[in-house]
Design goal:
By secondary structure, the chain is mainly α. It has eight helices and no strands. The radius of gyration is 18 Å and the shape is globular.
């Protein structure tokens, strides 16, 4: 895998993969951790915090993703970055399809209060937010380097909100991060192997 400008972020993605993988292994062998965390938040929820968590959760809703994707598409088209546009759109659209496929294969039930929302693993919000903001970081990395990593706090907040709201198990969130990171690695390899990526650093000056 050859990244002249994005190797730093690729290493971060591998770090996310490694950490989430080991946490998933732990949760697999100790499933009572999922249950204990779900029970804790179901008993300790506060109305004001619930409202805040729902707002944070909406950052990975289909409406927000469509809005931010439109903005990104306009910026990339304006700067003739069609390959990056293809990378971004393919990563997010096919990523959603993969989420739905895995949900149907695994068919894991959600916490008891939200069984009507469909299957639980992986968390679509966690997976999509990792893909969405990870792709944005990939585009920004050549110019902003580690500063762009601040965007990773958004998927983390979204993941926490889903656990707090008790619509997902913790392992759904960790699994979503794992799947999102590995999908980003795969898509970036497909689009940018062999010639590296100069990202937004090469936008033409007006």
């Amino acid at each position: 895998m050859h990244y002249k400008k994005n190797r730093g972020f690729v290493l971060w993605l591998w770090s996310i993969l490694t950490v989430s993988f080991f946490i998933l292994i732990i949760l697999y062998f100790f499933p009572e951790v999922d249950l204990k965390i779900s029970e804790y938040f179901s008993k300790s929820q506060k109305p004001i915090i619930l409202g805040v968590m729902w707002l944070i959760s909406e950052l990975a809703s289909i409406y927000f993703i469509l809005i931010i994707s439109f903005v990104i598409a306009v910026v990339l088209i304006k700067n003739n970055k069609y390959k990056f546009l293809a990378f971004y759109l393919t990563s997010t659209v096919l990523g959603e399809a993969i989420i739905l496929l895995i949900k149907e294969v695994v068919q894991r039930a959600r916490p008891v209060y939200f069984t009507n929302l469909g299957y639980s693993f992986p968390s679509g919000h966690a997976t999509l937010s990792m893909i969405l903001f990870g792709a944005i970081i990939f585009l920004l990395w050549p110019k902003y380097k580690e500063k762009s990593l601040l965007l990773l706090f958004i998927p983390l907040l979204i993941g926490f909100s889903r656990v707090y709201l008790n619509v997902h198990w913790l392992s759904d969130i960790i699994g979503g991060f794992f799947i999102g990171a590995i999908w980003l690695l795969f898509m970036s390899w497909i689009f940018f192997r062999g010639n590296g990526s100069k990202g937004l650093n090469t936008f033409p000056k007006n």
